[in-house]
Amino acid sequence: MSRKTNASTIAFGGVMAALAVVIMCLGGVIPVATFVCPMLCMLVMTLVQKRCGSSIGWAWYGAVAILSLLLSPDKEGAAVFAVLGYYPILKPKMDKLPISWLWKGLLFNAAILSMYAALIHAFGMAQLMEEFEEMGLALTAVTLVLGNITFYLLDLLLGRKFNKKTKKSAA
Question: What gap in Å lies between CA 91 and CA 60, rounded to an integer?
Answer without folding.
Answer: 16
